[in-house]
Design goal:
4 helices, Mago nashi protein, seven-stranded mixed sheet, alpha+beta
């Protein structure tokens, strides 16, 4: 195979992976999200960074556990519409979450860390982030907080 043919093959492969990593989640019918579990954990920093875990279940149940530097400590539960869970799952696909590395760490100190995970169709993908990159992961974490409505417990 020539180098031009090889390069073209690589380009097609990359385009294929990129196209499928941003496709919306294929579930369309109600009830197919029951096995979905999305978790975001934020940890303390050298300062007053909120320390909590929020879990969003496919049926719309949100479980929050505030640990430190939050307005509400302890466990709280809430309910969000199932279509919000569907939107959140689609956000994972748009962010290319399944193509991300398992860890991102910058050579800095005293920052909070975040661990984002999703379980769907019996498979789990988790990504640990310490630092500001990748930006699409940070945006996904913020979207989880927004849809799960954690602000009422984190900030009060």
């Amino acid at each position: 195979m020539s180098s031009a043919g090889f390069a073209a093959g690589i380009a097609v492969g990359v385009a294929f992976v990129m196209a499928f990593s941003i496709m919306p989640f294929p579930y369309g019918d109600r009830g197919q999200y029951e096995d979905v579990t999305i978790t975001l954990e934020r940890t303390v920093c050298f300062g007053f960074c909120p320390d909590y875990i929020v879990t969003v279940h496919g049926n719309g149940t949100v479980v929050y556990e505030g640990r430190a530097f939050v307005a509400v400590e302890g466990t709280q539960t809430a309910q969000i519409p199932e279509q919000d869970v569907q939107e959140l799952v689609s956000e994972f696909y748009r962010a290319g979450f399944f193509s991300l590395a398992d860890r991102y760490e910058q050579a800095v100190t005293d920052l909070p860390s975040q661990t984002t995970s999703i379980t769907i169709d019996g498979m789990t993908k988790s990504v640990y982030r310490y630092g500001s990159e990748p930006q699409r992961l940070a945006m996904l974490e913020d979207r989880i907080d927004e849809i799960a409505q954690t602000e009422k417990w984190v900030k009060g």
